[in-house]
Automatic annotation (TrEMBL), chain A:
One Pfam family, short name: MinC_C
Protein name: Probable septum site-determining protein MinC
NCBIfam families according to UniProt: minC (TIGR01222)
Organism: Gracilibacillus halophilus YIM-C55.5
Domain Septum site-determining protein MinC N-terminal: 6-82
UniProt entry keywords in alphabetical sequence: Cell cycle, Cell division, Septation
Keyword Cell division attributed: yes
Oligomer status and interactors: Interacts with MinD and FtsZ.
UniProtKB/TrEMBL annotation, chain B:
InterPro entries: AAA_dom (IPR025669), MinD (IPR010223), MinD_FleN (IPR025501), P-loop_NTPase (IPR027417), ParA/MinD_ATPase (IPR050625)
Role this protein plays: ATPase required for the correct placement of the division site. Cell division inhibitors MinC and MinD act in concert to form an inhibitor capable of blocking formation of the polar Z ring septums. Rapidly oscillates between the poles of the cell to destabilize FtsZ filaments that have formed before they mature into polar Z rings.
SUPFAM superfamilies: P-loop containing nucleoside triphosphate hydrolases
Native source organism of the sequence: Gracilibacillus halophilus YIM-C55.5
GO cellular component: cytoplasmic side of plasma membrane; cytosol
Annotated residues for binding of ATP: 11-18
Full protein name: Septum site-determining protein MinD
Length: 226, 264
């Protein structure tokens, strides 16, 4: 064999498999299987997590499944993630859509729903009975008195912020919190986000947000998380 | 060429019909030629509040279905020569009215009248659509209660989709003592939430109910709080700037001082 298609690196967190991105996919699969069987891990060792880096190769969903299958055949290996440097244009457009800030200037009144892909910047109020929904973050420059649902496609990293926070309900991804049953005046300059340790929405002053977490838009998040 | 104003609210029983009757009366007092239209098919009562029930021969559905001429269905008021009513039908089925028919009819009325006030049924369905169809402007009536304000907000959202001017607000049935105790929404809070222009506020006053029971709108009386309030609203419709009436007018300055000093 002249050139190695599979490089294995051991790290503190498990194994990293670096796969060649110029050879044919079949050749890559073949060698992956050979290398893994040759390095088979013995009997009662613990499970090892594997990160797979496929460089500048684009794999289809079917090919990705094949890669996972090949690695999973080694009983002690679990695939953590498969990362590639490249994505389809179609995907890139979707990322772009989901990371754009949508500016709206209106009052979302009772019975109305304002739904956007991306982050929502609303200049105006959300009245009781009104609802705003975004796949990303929600920023209300006005009174939030109705319902706001951020990260509607499941993104738990999103936040909801308002000039006056007096919502009847906040939702982030699948997590819901409702207002207390007694009347409240609302809190100026407040935001809500998910406290991952409790899987609950917590509220904080907007001014403190910069210290506790950074607001990422969907694009930054995706590029950094792969 | 006159102006058509729809009076609407979403919620029932907040005072649309009372407002229509009183604004019609007040505008007539100011020498305007006014036509009131009751579009609450099956639940007509504008005629009762005006004391004109016994004069009805034809109604709005008869006009739309061309069973009579528009002029034949119009009823002249007892008190004013310049005030007319087009009554709703009490028996016909609601689908008899159409938005297109309403538009045509109102266009025709606009030739002869300065103001056409359209009393809208409760709800946001076809009845509301019909009432709004021919209007140039809208007045939204609410009471200082959460549910009523919520429905007003819903209606304002719907009105914003129509080709009419931004609606104006009337807050009706304000009770002073409840307002002072914080048991009712404050006027400022209502205006802030609905964020449309406030046209006027009307106190809750037993005289209003007594007057409608006698078939004579309160605005016809010279000096009750409610009649002054309605007449002020009419003047604001005409473009005058009339300051908001102080609901506490019965409590003078000295009363306040006494209260502050602990006298009762
Ligand atoms: N300002 C007021 N003070 C006291 N009673 C009122 C006032 N406005 C309306 N009402 C009463 O409330 C009831 C409902 O009013 P109405 O005008 O018929 O409402 P709607 O047309 O919106 O259903 C009626 O009995 C009416 O007399
Ligand atoms: Mg009515």
């Amino acid at each position: 064999m002249t050139k190695q298609f599979v490089t294995i690196k051991g790290t503190r967190d498990g194994l990293t498999l670096i796969l060649d991105d110029t050879c044919a996919f079949e050749d890559l699969l073949g060698e992956l299987e050979r290398v893994l069987t040759a390095n088979d891990i013995e009997g009662d060792e613990p499970m090892v997590t594997v990160t797979v880096k496929i460089g500048n190769r684009y794999v289809t969903q079917k090919q990705e499944d094949q890669l996972r299958e090949t690695i999973r055949k080694q009983k002690k290996l679990v695939v953590e993630e498969i990362t590639s440097n490249v994505i389809l244009k179609e995907k890139a457009l979707q990322w772009k859509e989901e990371s754009e800030v949508r500016l709206h200037q209106k009052i979302v009144r009772s019975g109305q729903v304002l739904e956007v892909t991306g982050d929502l910047l609303l200049v105006g109020d959300v009245n009781p009975g009104g609802k705003v929904v975004a796949s990303g973050n929600i920023f209300v420059m006005g009174n939030l008195r109705g319902i706001a649902h951020a990260g509607v496609k499941g993104n738990k990293d999103t936040i909801i912020a308002a000039s006056l926070m007096a919502p009847s309900q906040l939702r982030i991804a699948e997590v819901i919190s409702r207002s207390p049953d007694h009347d409240t005046e609302g809190v100026p300059m407040e935001c809500g986000y998910i406290d991952t340790s409790k899987d609950q929405i917590v509220m904080d002053q907007l001014a403190r947000l910069a210290k506790t977490r950074s607001i990422m838009n969907a694009f930054e998040r995706r590029v950094s998380h792969g | 060429m006159g102006e058509a104003i729809v009076i609407t609210s979403g919620k029932g029983g907040v005072g649309k019909t009372t407002t229509a009757a009183n604004l019609g009366t007040s505008l007539a007092l100011l020498d305007k030629k006014v036509c009131l239209i009751d579009t609450d098919i099956g639940l007509r009562n504008l005629d009762v509040v005006l004391g004109l029930e016994n004069r009805i021969i034809y109604d709005i559905v008869d006009v739309i279905q061309e069973k009579c001429k528009l002029q034949q269905a119009l009823i002249k008021d007892k008190r004013f020569d310049c005030l007319y009513l087009l009554p709703a039908a009490q028996t016909s089925d609601k689908t008899a009215l159409t938005a297109e028919g309403m538009k045509q009819m109102i266009d025709e009325l606009k030739q002869d009248y300065d103001y056409i006030l359209i009393d809208c049924p409760a709800g946001i369905e076809q009845g509301y659509q019909n009432a709004v169809a021919g209007a140039d402007k809208a007045i939204v009536v609410t009471t200082p209660e959460k549910s009523s304000v919520r429905d007003a907000d819903r209606i304002i959202g719907l009105l914003e989709q129509e080709e009419i001017e931004p609606p104006h607000l009337v807050i009706n049935r304000i009770r002073n003592h409840m307002m002072e105790n914080g048991d009712m929404l404050a006027i400022d809070d209502i205006v802030q939430i609905l964020s449309i222009e406030l046209l006027g506020i009307v106190a809750d006053d037993d005289e209003v109910i007594k007057a409608s029971n006698h078939g004579e709108p309160i605005a016809f009386q010279p000096n009750t709080r409610a009649s002054i309030a309605y007449r002020n609203i009419a003047r604001r419709i005409l473009g005058e700037s009339v300051p908001l009436m102080n609901l506490e007018q019965k409590e003078g300055f000295f009363d306040k001082v006494k209260k502050a000093l602990g006298f009762r």
